[in-house]
Amino acid sequence: MKDQLETIRQKAIAKVNEARNLKELQDIKVAYLGKKGSLTSVLRGMGNLSKEERPIVGEIANNVREAITQEIDEKTEILEKKAMEEKLESESIDVTLPGRPVKVGGSHLLTSIIEEIEDLFIGMGYEVREGPEVETDYFNFEALNLPKGHPARDMQDTFYITNELLLRTHTSPVQARTMQQYGGTEPVKMICPGKVYRRDTDDATHSHQFTQIEGLYVDENVRMSDLKGTLNRFAKRIFGEDRQIRLRPSFFPFTEPSVEMDISCKVCNGEGCSVCKYSGWIEILGSGMIHPNVLEMAGYDSEKYTGFAFGMGPDRIAMLKYGIDDIRNFYTNDKRFLTQYHHAKGGAV
Questions:
Q1: Which CATH class is domain 109-341?
Q2: The Aminoacyl-transfer RNA synthetases class-II family profile domain covers which part of the protein (predicted)?
Q3: 3-state helix, strand, coil in the chain (%, to 5)
Q4: Pair 276, 282: CB distance under 8 Å
Q5: Pairwise CA distance, residues 59 & 26, whole Å
Q6: Annotated binding site
Q7: pTM of the entire structure?
Q8: What is the three-class DSSP state of 211?
């Protein structure tokens, strides 16, 4: 049995030295040291030995096991190192290759326009407010001097969810909510950008969903001249210092008096062209002094407080500022269009 053990040791070590990879080495370990391995098979015959021979053979068997295990461990370390080197070689990076450019996104044009307008009004002391897009009939209409049955409601084709719930048709409800929140005792100076919805047929200049920014200023002794000065500053900041404005009488249920603001056409500088329909002016927004009824419904004393409101469409502003002729371009997610305006924010064009 001693000779058998020595033969197993020699053969096992020779096999270990010949192993070319970790799988072959594992197979050798199982073949000699496993439950059905050569060494285990020999040890099972120790029961036939005398009491004197068993300790001697047992010691030899342990030495053989240790010798084979040591050889396998050393070979494993060598093969693992070799496998790692081969892997690193196959996965090496050629640093001389040119890098792949990373495509950097940018703000959507409407987002840039809205942020530019927000920056302007924040600098004038306005705060930015938001409100729900699913609105109540009261805040969307009644609190703005549009009671049920008022003919002006027909001008805003509304998406009704229930008789009292709807998709807001303008951001004016945020103004009504803010005035009520202030309780009729504090000044309000705010703008409210957001999405609005109307049952309109989509075409080059109309959309069932679009954006609005409305502004509100309520305090003692607020005058029409304050409104004009605010709008004049807005027009020059957004469209260029050479833009001129004019105010035309108009009608809105929630303002009295009401005016619409035009800016001088930048294409013809007021001389008249096809863009401005040969008038020299382009309509840009509606505004006016807040109707006393709106102030009273919000809790303000209309004898003490006055204010003005204005509303504009960032979609229309972007179209005029950058010469875009189809509002649908803002919402169809065509990258060929959107990537032209990644750096459009700021400055007049």
A1: alpha beta
A2: 73-340
A3: 45, 20, 35
A4: yes
A5: 25
A6: 256
A7: 0.66
A8: strand
Cβ pair 270, 281 in contact under 8 A: yes
31-40: Cβ within 8 A, 24+ apart: 32/8, 32/68, 33/65, 33/68, 33/69, 38/8, 38/11, 38/12, 39/5, 39/8, 39/12, 39/64, 39/65, 39/68
Locate the domains of the chain by residue range. Answer: 2-90, 109-341
Q: How many CA atoms lie within 13 A of 263 on its CB side?
A: 24
Dist CA 87 CA 333 (whole Å): 44
Tell me the per-residue pLDDT of 140-193, one tens digit each, with 9 for 90 and over: 999 999 888 877 777 668 899 998 999 999 999 999 999 999 888 899 999 999
| Alpha-carbon torsion angle 340, 341, 342, 344, nearest 10 | 140
- Length of the chain counted residue by residue: 349
The region, left, alpha or beta by phi > 0 then psi within -120 to 50, assigned to residue 309 is beta
Q: List Cα–Cα distances, 95 to 85, 90, 247, 279, 312, in angstroms.
A: 19, 14, 64, 63, 53
- Radius of gyration for the chain, computed over Cα atoms and rounded to the nearest angstrom: 41
